[in-house]
Amino acid sequence: MSAVTLSQVAREAGVSLATASRVLNGSDRRPAEGIAERVRLAAETLGYVANAQAQALARSTTGLVGLVVHDIADPYFSSIAKGVQRRARTHRHQLLLAATSGTDQLDAVAAFAAHRTDAIIMAGSRREDIDPRLLTELERYQKNGGRVVTIGQDWLEGAGAVTIDNRSAGAELTATLVEDGRTRFAFLGGPDDLTTAVERRAGFRAAVARAGLTPEAETVQGFDSQGGYESVRQLVARLGLDRLRGLTLVAANDIMALGAIAALRHAGLHVPDDLWVAGFDDIPNLRDFSPGLTTVRFPLEEIGETAADVALSGDHPRVEHVVGEFVRRESA
Amino acid sequence: MSAVTLSQVAREAGVSLATASRVLNGSDRRPAEGIAERVRLAAETLGYVANAQAQALARSTTGLVGLVVHDIADPYFSSIAKGVQRRARTHRHQLLLAATSGTDQLDAVAAFAAHRTDAIIMAGSRREDIDPRLLTELERYQKNGGRVVTIGQDWLEGAGAVTIDNRSAGAELTATLVEDGRTRFAFLGGPDDLTTAVERRAGFRAAVARAGLTPEAETVQGFDSQGGYESVRQLVARLGLDRLRGLTLVAANDIMALGAIAALRHAGLHVPDDLWVAGFDDIPNLRDFSPGLTTVRFPLEEIGETAADVALSGDHPRVEHVVGEFVRRESA
DNA sequence: AATTTGCAGGAAAGCGCTTTCCACTCTAGA
DNA sequence: TCTAGAGTGGAAAGCGCTTTCCTGCAAATT
């Protein structure tokens, strides 16, 4: 990547480097209009494009913000990413994206640190047992002036956060269903080390217990459609079709709920005639799905936007709290 | 973002800058193991993290690859992004993401050029009338040694590409349906300036004409779920419910097809009992949807991977061609 | 008329690295 | 024993910018 440099432009315009820099790349000192015009013309004819790396080095700020997600193809994360991207743009920042399908958040953070992003947004659902090296890396990053904001919970000292009240969401969803007169529940859960999944289940359990009930089953599967599907197969195997009737299945997220409904359909059970299913998140395009999924909405894009704002604007370690909103549709 | 610098490490280790650089940041010259060990220790204790900006400046290569998509929350693009991200990682590159919901691809490309990304992947569906300034910008970028690869069609001289045969896909899908004995067709189309949408429609038209038939309607709407929904409302208004029965609706993509099916459901029509619907792409999680959507599969993640490979490996202006695969499900 | 201000453009010192030379030591060949 | 050759580590010149001073000039002040 060679390219026209600022000094070529300066020479062409017959001015110094300093002047060229001042007119082209912003400064509080504005050279005289005549000169400025000459510089602009020279830049235009030569096709000058500022070198962001050099600028970053000189200014010691990069205009980059890093986002780490688990799986960018998951609508949950892609919605958040969309929000982040939108606000990053208004803050005149570029988005560096890392999808860490595995446990390699560490690599991603290290890469972002190397690129000296102005901020890092951690959207990957937190795992219960955080890799201590991740913590070390993030703390060092913060000490060097980098900002980090976590989405989900507020788990890092000195970092901003957009917290999501998964526990209450789980409890309220379940309580509402109890009020509907439901008495038999099962939870289709995600992996035990995923905080989001764990908290939603905790809320579910609390609400069920408060109603004096006992869940008939709890599964532990992947946090995706496949996980929902497998959960149902497991339930069918363990309880049998008949005992599934009349059950209310609370899935740890919408995607799992969708997978569960598909599995139920394949098993010959119909939602909501035979049993009920609810989820969390209210991912996009749920409206196209039938039966409409009863869920707890979290404004995903907005969460992304807020995260970007927290990361990129004035008062830093700020934490914004997001609560879910019960959305009643046909499935439960 | 201040941080520990290489020269601090060098001083701590009692060696020169050159040696420290050679030990820590890769070089064909490997300093003696004793010295190397000292440097590594110093780096470790000081918490050194190489400054990618400075490295980029010195090496004149950034290890960045830019991806521009229309809407990262659209499963079509997020799947591609997932593939790109995965391969970028194996090529040891970081992903710079720009979502240009509007016409501002130009800004995105300019930003990528400023950041001296090693390559730019244009996944945003091409518009029929390309902004000439976009072309200029991309050509300059290429002249400076940047690689660009386009996804969809091969519309830029000197660029790599992963071409998608939308026209054939449209034709084959339709032809297959004709073979099934369908005679009455309608096309639910995307915007007229979106090449993907236009080509799929062209294929559809050709196949219908070849069968000696005439489409009963063609709509022009957004390329999203909403567009599919609106298309159906329009059809209902224009043709009436009765004339919709027995029709085969070919939507310009899966998302539109899903929106269409939802609209039909709301209108009291059932797929596939009353009429049929088919789409394109085979986006993820379609399996959870009922009725299963008949579609033409394009391996989205794989397309992303290929694009990244074309962008980042040996022989450049390479073009890979992707053809769709008919997938029969219940909806048509 | 003599001085101070105010502001302009330019020279040059970094920003944190990589890499080319260079000087040097040590081994091996004659 | 002498010299060529093979390696070593280090000095220093960039990479393309920003920004601090500095100098010089014209306008403003007495």
Q: If you had to describe this structure to a student in words, what would you say it looks like?
A:
The structure is a homodimer of 332-residue chains. The first copy, chain A, is α/β, with parallel strands linked by helices and 332 residues long. The first copy, chain A, folds into three domains: 6-50, no CATH class; 62-164 and 301-324, Response regulator (Rossmann fold); 166-297, Rossmann fold. Chain A has twelve helices and twelve strands. Chain A has helices spanning 6-13, 17-24, 33-46, 52-59, 75-90, 105-114, 132-143, 166-179, 195-210, 225-244, 254-266, 300-312; strands spanning 64-69, 94-99, 119-122, 147-152, 160-164, 185-189, 217-220, 248-251, 276-278, 295-297, 319-322, 325-327. In chain A, the strands form three sheets. A six-stranded parallel β-sheet of chain A has the order 2-1-3-4-5-11, with helices on both faces. Chain A has a four-stranded parallel β-sheet with strand order 7-6-8-9, with helices on both faces. In chain A, strands 10-12 form a two-stranded antiparallel ribbon. In chain A, α1 crosses α2 (17-24). Chain A is elongated. Chains A and B meet through α4, α5, β2, α6 and α11 of A and α4, α5, β2, α6 and α11 of B. β2 (94-99) of chain A pairs antiparallel with β2 of chain B, so a sheet runs across the interface.
- Provide mean pLDDT of chain A, rounded: 93
- Approximately how much beta-strand content do the residues of chain A carry? 15-25%
Assign the structural class of chain A, choosing from mainly alpha, mainly beta, alpha/beta, alpha+beta, or little secondary structure. Answer: alpha/beta
Oligomer: homodimer
| CATH fourth-tier homologous superfamily of the largest domain in chain A | Response regulator
Q: Major β-sheet of chain A, in short?
A: 6 strands, parallel
Largest interface: pair, residues per side: A-B, 56 and 56 residues
